[in-house]
Design brief:
binds fe (ii) ion; seven-stranded mixed β-sheet
Length: 242
């Protein structure tokens, strides 16, 4: 088992580990400005590999922010191990997520992010918080958008099972919709499609997936396609009920 490191946009690094026997890879992202932000920590068991990989990009003592899409083992299992080894780092999570989850779970008090709040990392790197409750799952769910590279750190959105390339320009929509067959990871509601399509207004040019490749290209079209697909699934669910 190894953690690979690839720069998928200017000073945004994808760390990827495919544990033996796992159905999909686990990706973390480091955004490096004058200060650095980590998006996802990986599970506790991955901490030795992931922290070693992070340290190749930025010394842990220079890590300022530890962030993740929602509270779940693969997103933030190693949060406290990072806090213990990155003495100046702070966890940043949505204000509601801090109230219901992270205030209690984190060994140091987190920074509650407002919707739309920007973490300015210096050197032009600006990471904006966008609250997306229950998208794809979790009351505390949010995504983050790095403005200078138009990279959407989209967490579990577009999840793919199996091995993946580092980057792709091929559409992810159909594969993502098929992934719903694996336990239905997305909380399908009437707001799922509209919330995903709203992200298209950011006009991202990269989608940094937690479980899959990084998509490079017309990401707005991908988000609209995914939102429409979930709308169809939700309507099918309603139709099957009567
Ligand atoms: Fe998740
Ligand atoms: Fe995940």
């Amino acid at each position: 088992m190894e953690t690979t490191i690839n720069e998928i946009a200017d000073n945004i690094f994808r760390l990827s580990t495919f544990p033996d026997g796992a159905p999909l890879p686990f990706n973390q992202f480091v955004v490096r400005g004058e200060r650095a932000l980590l998006f996802h920590t990986g599970m506790r068991s991955l901490f030795p590999l992931v922290s070693e990989a992070v340290a190749k990009i930025v010394p842990l003592a220079e890590l300022e922010w530890i962030t993740f899409g929602h509270v779940e083992a693969d997103e933030c299992g190693a949060m406290n191990q990072f806090l213990a080894n990155a003495p100046y780092a702070k966890v940043a999570h949505g204000a509601l997520g801090c109230m219901v989850q992270v205030n209690d779970l984190a060994d140091r008090a987190p920074h509650p992010l407002e919707d739309g709040e920007v973490l300015d990392l210096g050197n032009g790197k600006r990471v904006r918080n966008i609250e997306t409750p229950h998208l794809p799952h979790g009351w505390d769910a949010h995504v983050m958008f790095e403005e200078s590279t138009r990279t959407l750190l989209c967490g579990d959105l577009f999840t793919q099972f199996g091995p993946s390339a580092v980057t792709t320009t091929e559409s992810l929509v159909e594969t993502a919709l098929q992934s719903e067959d694996f336990g239905g990871p997305t909380a399908l509601t009437a707001t799922t499609g509209p919330r995903i399509r709203a992200l298209a207004n950011l006009e991202p040019t990269a989608l940094a997936l937690m479980h899959g490749p990084t998509f490079l290209g017309d990401a707005s079209k991908e988000l609209i396609g995914l939102g429409d697909g979930y709308d169809r699934m939700f309507e099918d669910t309603l139709a099957a009920r009567v």
